[in-house]
Amino acid sequence: MTKSTPGVRVRAESGPRCRWCRRVLPEQNGAGRKRVFCSQACRQWDWVGRQRARELKLSEDELVVARQEIDSLYDDLYVLACAVDDTEREMKAGKPTVTSLKEAMEWIMDAARPLRDRTLTPSGQPE
Hints:
This protein is 50% helix and 6% strand. It is mainly alpha-helical. α2 (67-92) runs antiparallel to α3 (98-117).
């Protein structure tokens, strides 16, 4: 769940995240170094990514993304934007019914799930 404050968005599931896949890391108690990766696979892909970035002379802030990945992301964002726009229009049109609100919420949730579940995988990595 996302708490909204004017101009600020905070995720309820905050905490340290995997340096590669950005998943929330499990809570760590006790001594030892803090975890940076959620798995050995993420550690390996981060290393490969850093080696490849060094070869391509990319800075820390630059990222190479496959056109297919970015097109798919934009498609999912467009569907979500349409769901939000239609729901706003329905709310402003008058008194919405419980059924119409339920349908609007289902549409927004269906449009948001692909974004919530999306991961960007490097080429050659199994999804």
